[in-house]
TrEMBL record:
<keyword id="KW-0472">Membrane</keyword>
<keyword id="KW-0675">Receptor</keyword>
<comment type="similarity">
    <text>Belongs to the TonB-dependent receptor family.</text>
</comment>
<dbReference type="InterPro" id="IPR012910">
    <property type="entry name" value="Plug_dom"/>
</dbReference>
<feature type="signal peptide">
    <location>
        <begin position="1"/>
        <end position="22"/>
    </location>
</feature>
<dbReference type="GO" id="GO:0009279">
    <property type="term" value="C:cell outer membrane"/>
</dbReference>
<keyword id="KW-0812">Transmembrane</keyword>
<keyword id="KW-0998">Cell outer membrane</keyword>
<dbReference type="Pfam" id="PF07715">
    <property type="entry name" value="Plug"/>
</dbReference>
<keyword id="KW-0813">Transport</keyword>
<protein>
    <submittedName>
        <fullName>TonB-dependent receptor plug domain-containing protein</fullName>
    </submittedName>
</protein>
<keyword id="KW-0732">Signal</keyword>
<feature type="domain" description="TonB-dependent receptor plug">
    <location>
        <begin position="148"/>
        <end position="222"/>
    </location>
</feature>
<dbReference type="InterPro" id="IPR037066">
    <property type="entry name" value="Plug_dom_sf"/>
</dbReference>
<keyword id="KW-1134">Transmembrane beta strand</keyword>
<dbReference type="InterPro" id="IPR039426">
    <property type="entry name" value="TonB-dep_rcpt-like"/>
</dbReference>
Length: 785
């Protein structure tokens, strides 16, 4: 189907949905006050500010929909014996009712400025941070479950040029430039199924904070973004459990009160792909294993993917212990694992031989934290974490009688002391110290000819940070300013990293936003050869050595890997009134210290080692309209120009970044009726840059390809339409079931996400194309109680 035809059909379907869906959502009666407040926030487009202790154990019924906001607040005052103070048309402060006093007290407002950002469960704060709460998450096109890393790709300025969660490009950066934290522990693996599914179970994730700029000073690393995933951290003595399955995996989770002051949170998820073959698995397998050792073989080979076996699983656990009301201990555990085995067969000297190749990818995380609330103003948290990443591959070439072992291991240990001080209702201070030690090793072992290379490096860093946050009583002015000082003992280097976040509301419904930051990073991923680790996960983690020139260790050349340094500034204006949000944000970011090996070149620079930088400037635009709580639609558009500069390449002239996607547009709509949720969406972006062969000047006898200007052309535009639907029903007084259906790429459009060129046996240039997922259905059934 042509792109024009796809777009026309989508637009027709989209507006038919808008015209047809006009009924109002019928809300079920709820008793917990926090749930009632969320419903009222959505209904009246307001935000409540309160301390958790203020509304604890408060229950009420949902006010009638025909009441005015003033009437609803009076109703809540009567039913909860709390005070509800309407500060303006957007913010309501909740306070415990106290006797009259001669002294006037104020309540610090929460920093929420936009609720239901795109859909329910997504909120934007006035410091630029976007918060996602999977528990209250609504629905997005193509998703029937709240996959964390798929969800953030719906945000303006966030894109994956190859449709995976292991290659998320935020404002032009590579995936390794995103800092992924799970309960404060750095993660080096983000995906299952080698990038198609998030490795983090959304049903045990309480909140996800995403920061693209103006990052709080307590965060180091992550020069492109911070993705901070947090499990529930409060004991509420409420049992909660659930489970479900879809055509890829099954999972269960439980939140179990052990005593009045202890709680255990556990979950596990496992693929069903080695137990049952589903159409969805076949499509995923075709997408992931294309152009890998499982599908690339010459005419003398047998089909090596014939006996392929693949599965993945993850396990999470968190133990909460409130020693006293002021002292709390938390233990954290996470294990993420992908395993692949396949049998390669061949007939050698009239004898059938078979050897097993395998690939294993694992991230194990352990953490301990102790929090002390010294008084109402001062709290400290001490945390010790260990993250262990292990990527192992054994690859047999049965024809050439060769065995290749490759390993990439990361051990990241950290200790952190964080101090929070609430000077007043208007001023908060945060500071602390963090020590990090990262060791990374890389092994290559070949038996024919005999060759072995093992390299291990360690970098230790010390960081001091401090930040002040001011929020005015009317919530019009928000200012955060902080600084992080990093010291790298190995390089005797000190890096200063100031951070700024400022927002000012004006004309009641407009808000001006200014963000800025300097950041650094010592870990990155590189590609030595495209067929490393069976060609499936070919990126390996390395540490910065801060060398200026190549070095030699154990007869292996060590290429220079500088410390990555970034600086970014952005300015935004947002309008929010009557459930209409219009947002525009312009930004400029520059990153120094990148290497060609970290960028994944597959042209004339594939085997070149050079150091350079990239600079990106762009604008993110969003318009979001909510029609009551029945229908929500949004249009987002991003324009950016992202260019490399390598002094040793292209005569020192700039050329387009491999992730230079100039235009990206998303159009989506969500409709809710009773217990049914429907979502329909369209994603389009211009094609990524590619380098074409220079056929006119190519010499077929030199066994090399002559290329034209680097990234001088572009692939065809990318276009994909998705839909999803869920239906919830009560199966008992305490249990709820949700049935979901999604279709990814409903028009089965063939999108080329990468093209490179190679030579065949006759030295002819052959193009190799990587294709995105075609039409991919999925079904899920979940029960929670």
């Amino acid at each position: 189907m042509s792109r024009k035809g796809t777009g026309s059909i989508f637009i027709l379907l989209f507006f038919l949905n808008v015209a047809a869906f006009s009924a109002q959502t019928i809300q079920k009666e709820k008793h917990t006050l926090v749930v009632v407040l969320k419903i009222i926030e959505t209904r009246y487009n307001i935000s409540f500010s309160y301390a958790d202790a203020t509304i604890e154990n408060k229950k009420t019924v949902i006010p009638d929909e025909d009441l005015t906001l003033a009437e609803v607040l009076e109703f809540l005052k009567e039913k909860t014996t709390l005070d509800f103070e309407l500060l303006n048309d957007r913010f309501v402060a909740i306070k415990a009712r106290k006797p009259l006093s001669l002294f006037h007290t104020t309540q610090r407002l929460d920093e929420i400025v936009i609720t239901n950002y795109l859909t329910t469960g997504i909120t934007k704060l006035n410091d630029g941070i976007i918060t996602i709460k999977p528990e209250t998450f609504g629905i997005l096109p193509g998703l029937i479950e709240p996959d964390v890393l798929q969800t953030i790709q719906s945000l303006p300025g966030v894109l994956s040029i190859d449709e995976t969660v292991s290659n998320i490009n935020i404002r032009g950066g590579t995936h390794d430039q995103n800092l992924l934290l799970w309960d404060g522990i750095k993660m080096y693996q983000s995906g299952h199924f080698f990038g198609l599914i998030s490795a983090f179970n959304p049903y045990t994730t309480k909140q996800v904070n995403v920061s693209k700029n103006g990052t709080p000073a307590k965060y180091g690393d992550g020069i492109s973004s911070i993705i901070d995933m947090q499990m529930p951290n409060k004991i509420d003595n409420t049992f909660k459990a659930g489970g479900g399955f879809n055509l890829i995996n099954a999972d269960v989770f439980a939140k179990i009160p052990l005593t009045h002051n202890t709680e255990l949170q556990i979950s596990t998820r496992r693929s069903v792909t080695d137990l049952i073959t589903t159409p969805t698995y076949d499509l995923y397998k075709k997408r992931v294993f294309q152009d890998s050792d499982l599908t690339n073989f010459n005419q003398n080979d047998h089909a090596i993917d014939k006996n392929e076996e693949f599965y993945f699983y993850d396990i999470t656990a968190k133990f909460l212990y409130d020693i006293t009301k002021k002292d709390k201990i938390r233990l954290h555990f996470l294990n993420v694992n992908n395993k692949l085995n396949y049998e390669e067969q061949a007939n050698i000297n009239d004898r059938n031989e078979a050897l097993n190749s395998k690939l294993s990818q694992q991230n194990l995380a352990l953490g301990f934290s102790y929090t002390r609330d010294w008084n109402a103003k001062l709290a400290t948290t001490a945390q010790v974490n260990v993250s262990n990443y292990d990527l192992d591959a054994t690859n047999f070439d049965i024809i050439n009688n060769q065995r290749l072992i490759q390993e990439n291991k990361v051990i990241d240990g950290s200790a952190k002391l964080d101090v929070d001080y609430k000077h007043s209702n208007l001023l908060k201070l945060n500071g602390g110290y963090q020590f990090i030690e990262v060791g990374i090793s890389n092994l290559e072992d070949v038996n024919n000819p005999v060759f072995r290379s093992y390299i291990r490096d360690v970098v230790r860093s010390h960081a001091l940070y401090a930040e002040a946050a001011f929020l005015s009583i009317d919530a019009k002015t928000n200012l955060k300013f902080g600084n992080r000082i990093n010291y790298f003992s190995k390089f005797n280097m000190i890096l200063n990293e100031p951070r700024l976040s400022f927002s000012q509301r004006f004309l009641n419904h407009f808000r001006f936003e200014l963000l800025g930051e300097l950041k650094s990073q010592t870990t990155s991923q590189i590609i030595d050869l495209q067929n490393d680790f069976l060609g499936i996960e070919n990126r390996r983690w390395v540490l910065s050595n801060n060398n200026k020139v190549a070095d030699t260790i154990n007869n292996k050349i060590i290429q220079p890997v500088p410390i990555l340094k970034s600086k970014q500034a952005s300015v935004g204006v947002h309008y929010n009134k009557n459930k209409l949000l219009i947002s525009a944000e312009g930004y400029l970011k520059k990153v120094d210290g990148i290497t060609t090996r970290s960028q994944g070149f597959q042209n004339q620079y594939q085997f070149v080692n050079s150091i350079g930088s990239y600079q990106i400037k762009g604008i993110d635009f969003l318009i979001n309209k909510q029609l009551s709580h029945v229908f929500s639609t949004w249009l987002s558009y991003s324009y950016s120009k992202n260019d490399y500069t390598f002094p040793d390449l292209n005569n020192g002239m700039s050329f387009p970044n491999n992730a230079d996607v100039r235009h990206a547009l998303a159009l989506s709509g969500i409709y809710t009726y009773n217990d049914i949720k429907l979502a329909l969406g369209l994603n389009w972006h211009s094609g990524k840059p590619t380098t074409l062969p220079d056929y006119a000047n190519d010499n077929p006898d030199d066994n090399t390809i002559t290329y034209a200007n680097p990234n001088g052309s572009n692939l065809n535009d990318y276009l994909r339409a998705d839909c999803s639907a869920t239906y919830s029903l009560d199966v008992s007084d305490t249990a709820t079931a949700i049935v979901g259906l999604s279709v990814w790429n409903i028009f089965n459009r063939k999108n080329i996400i990468n093209t490179y060129y190679t030579l065949d046996g006759d030295n002819n240039i052959v193009p190799i194309e990587n294709i995105s997922l075609g039409i991919t259905p999925n079904v899920s059934i979940r029960v929670s109680f």
